[in-house]
Specification:
This protein has 768 residues and is of the alpha+beta class. Helices cover 49% and strands 16% of the residues. Helix 2 (60-67) crosses helix 9 (241-260), helix 2 packs across helix 10 and helix 21 crosses helix 22 (614-625).
Length: 768
């Protein structure tokens, strides 16, 4: 009991001693403050305010306090400094080039990074920063930004907008990001879809020009930061707390006056501060700012520590800070003119200092023991990071489409090559789509049957196989895939190689061999047909000669039989025999012409360039194709109207005859296929036109088919591109024709087409 009394007595003595020292310090501080105030009454205290932008209603409270003499009443001579875009207002205050500054919630980020700033007041209770969509169709959600051009500065002044994107799971890689502040030229730039803007500023331009726009507010998505804030440095607050308190008091009084006398302060901004904005624009800004400050609901300058803590949490989530920090040193208490600190801190500073010394000593002891292990772990971590970076680089930059599959066939990761192959984005695929969604139904059925067979017969799972890959747009690709299991995991890596072009090439080679065989067969058949055809023509010719009235032998034999040649001819004419003989002769000659054209077309061009009559070549192709009839009833050329607009004075054209005939045949057959599609709407009509100018022989082949879209017209000469159904064309006819005209003949090959109005192919062959 006695010891307890002694302890209490000693504690009382220590407290009494501390109190006496504190009172003495307070007494001398009061004398010093009185002396400072006496000097201030003689000379005004010069201070500077650094704005975050150019002169406008955004800073009306400070203009009002200066205009109405509120700063002077507090003994302050204030100079307001406009923003220099090359300098940050916070840095200007911290470096002592300004005493006070205006910023936004960015001030908290600087504090959390260890910079010595102090918040004086939160003027705007809500941030004016928003996203504005201005191109049609207007966007109304941040998720619509994906793939769009978004103008957003990486500067910390736009942090609330970046927090919004982060919260919604939208990466800057998902958008076409333009990293800079918006300029007036950007407001109506059609190249930019969305821009970061102030509700107090940019909407005025759109409304003034009657341009539609939509606003995406961060607060709608739970991101509600403070707007403009008033701040100073810790050095200023520590060395001149009374100056800070006076400045804050005058500024808040100025804001109250400005909001109640908006037109008066707007005139001051225009006349005395030279604002570049019009009066109408400043009035628009004033109405918007009134809603951000909310003077009827919240005391001007009010700051909620809990809300600032939430902003700190958002910054950490965004990755802009690594660790949280106590915010008590962030706020300035205007009632005391000091930082907000706990009273117990002053009483127990000595004890805490001793504890800190002990902790430091213990830390040094432990640190020595852990140093080697930490270094070792750092080395291992560095190696792991390098290894991870190496394999990630291989995964992302490999030339093949690569995916990582889970045991239940979900795509865990995919690279950009796979995304491009599938037609989706990586974010749409990863952890949402199964491997089987990219396999055609027929192929999937085949795989399941094979899996059952393999299970029954215990055949090992193949590590590579071919299958039909289904793209987003319904296109089917021929794919060869290699699958490997990842060691120590149930996941598998699959690498896909697109074999579509190779398969097409193989099919083309097979088709080419078939065509060569058919060509050889056609040539052989033509020779065989020529023999009986010659007999038919010769027989018909002999019959005509045996009944001729001009032949003496015929006259004598007829007279010996009691009649004349004229009587015989009259009888044959009466019975139609003469007409039948003429028909046999004409049909035989037509058949002979067809066989001749076929033989000419199948012969190789071994003689090089020769002078050719283009009109005759076109006639030969028409004669040849007139007998063509598609067994799948795609067209019957006999029902096509042929219009020939030939230039009759056309000189011979120096060309490779067989190649030019091939081009003509491709174009005429393509026209026949095309016109079949519209044959129920209008009768097929093909126009062949020849003409010449000083340099070229010009051939035009024009049809009245369905025509082509601009997209198809741009690709019409690409190899393997075809608009025909699968199996009806290789997509090489026009590309080969284009090569023959432009490369082999140094000519020009053009197409003119419009949907619903047919197509016209123009060939220009140089005369020399």
């Amino acid at each position: 009991m006695k010891n307890r009394c002694l302890s209490e007595k000693n504690a009382a003595k220590k407290t009494s001693l501390f109190a006496r020292v504190s009172l003495s310090l307070l007494f001398f501080s009061t004398l010093l403050l009185c002396a400072q105030n006496a000097d201030a009454n003689e000379d005004l205290d010069k201070v500077t305010l650094q704005l975050k932008w150019f002169h406008q209603f955004q800073f009306a409270g400070y203009y009002a306090a200066l205009e109405k003499g509120y700063y002077k009443d507090e003994g302050l001579d204030l100079t307001i400094i406009e923003r220099d875009l090359k300098l940050n207002p916070i840095d200007q205050v911290l470096e002592g080039k300004a005493d006070f500054g205006v910023s936004n919630s960015e001030i908290l980020l600087h504090y959390l990074h260890g910079e010595k700033v102090v918040l004086l007041a939160s003027i705007f209770q809500h941030s004016p920063l928003v996203f504005i969509s201005k191109n049609s169709p207007l966007l109304h959600s941040p998720h619509d930004f994906i793939g769009k051009k978004v103008l957003l500065s990486s500067d910390a002044q736009d942090i609330e907008l970046r927090v919004l994107l982060k919260n919604e799971g939208i990466s800057l890689n998902d958008i076409s990001w333009i990293d800079r502040f918006a300029s007036p030229e950007d407001y109506f730039d059609p190249y930019i879809d969305v821009l970061a803007a102030y509700t107090t500023n940019q909407p005025f331009y759109f409304e003034n020009e009657n341009k539609p726009y939509s606003i995406i507010y961060p607060s709608t998505y739970g991101v509600d930061f403070y707007g403009d804030t008033l701040f100073t440095s810790q050095k200023q607050a520590q060395q001149h707390p009374e100056r800070v308190r006076k400045f804050l008091r005058a500024s808040l009084k100025g804001w109250l006056y400005a909001l109640n006398h908006q037109d008066e302060i707007i005139d001051v901004i225009i006349k005395k501060f030279g604002s570049l904005k019009s009066k109408k624009h400043l009035q628009f800004e004033a109405k918007k700012i009134q809603k951000l400050i909310l003077p009827d609901l919240v005391k001007i300058g009010h700051s909620n520590p809990v809300r600032w803590q939430r902003i700190s949490d958002s910054l950490k989530k965004l990755g802009m800070i690594s660790d949280q920090k106590e915010l008590s040193g962030f706020f300035f208490d205007p009632s005391t003119g000091r930082f907000v600190v706990k009273t117990e801190t002053a009483l127990y500073v000595t004890a805490l200092f001793s504890i800190i010394i002990l902790i430091l000593a213990l830390t040094i002891y432990i640190a020595r023991k852990l140093k080697k292990e930490i270094n070792s772990r750092k080395i291992i971590e560095t190696k792991l990071k390098k290894s991870e970076k190496y394999y990630r680089s291989l995964f992302e930059n490999t030339g093949t489409a690569t995916v990582i599959l889970t045991e239940d066939f979900y795509i865990k990761h995919c690279n950009e090559n796979f995304a491009e192959l599938s037609g989706f984005k990586c974010a749409e695929i990863e952890n949402t789509k199964k491997w089987t969604e990219f396999v055609t139904q027929d192929e999937l059925h085949r795989m399941r049957e094979y899996a059952l067979t393999r299970k029954d017969s215990k055949i090992p799972t193949p590590t590579s196989y071919d299958f039909k890959f289904l793209r987003r747009n319904g296109e089917i690709k021929n794919i060869h895939v290699y699958v490997e299991r990842i060691d120590g995991s149930t996941d598998r890596v699959a690498s896909l190689i697109d074999m579509t072009e190779k398969v097409k090439t193989q099919e083309l080679l097979i088709q080419t061999e078939k065509m060569l065989s058919v060509g050889g067969l056609a040539a052989g058949m033509a020779h065989e047909i020529n023999n009986p055809l010659a007999g038919i023509l010769q027989g018909a010719q002999n019959i005509k000669r045996r009944i001729s009235t001009d032949n003496k032998t015929n006259i004598e034999i007829a007279r010996s039989k009691g009649c004349s040649c004229e009587q015989i001819n009259d009888y044959l004419e009466e019975r139609g025999v003469i007409r039948i003989l003429d028909g046999i002769k004409n049909s035989g000659e037509r058949a002979a012409t067809i066989v001749k054209n076929m033989l000419d077309f199948t012969r190789r061009n071994e003689s090089g360039r020769t002078g050719c009559d283009i009109n005759t070549l076109l006639d030969g192709i028409i004669d040849l194709i007139s007998c063509d009839y598609d067994l799948r009833k795609k067209y019957d050329f006999k029902h096509t109207e042929i219009i020939k607009e030939y230039a009759h004075n056309l000189s011979l054209t120096n060309c490779y005859r067989i190649e030019i005939e091939q081009v003509f045949l491709n174009l005429v057959k393509n026209a026949a296929y095309a016109m079949y599609e519209t044959s129920k709407i209008r009768p097929p009509k093909l126009t062949l036109r020849t003409k010449a100018d000083e340099l070229y022989t010009i051939i035009e082949i024009e049809d009245n088919g369905p025509g082509m879209s601009n997209k198809v017209k741009r690709r019409i000469f690409e190899p393997f591109f075809t608009t025909k159904s699968p199996g009806l064309g290789t997509g090489l006819g026009l590309s080969v024709s284009f090569f023959i005209i432009t490369q082999n003949h140094k000519g020009i090959f053009e197409v003119d087409s419009e949907l619903g109005k047919g197509s016209k192919f123009t060939i220009k062959i140089p005369k020399v």
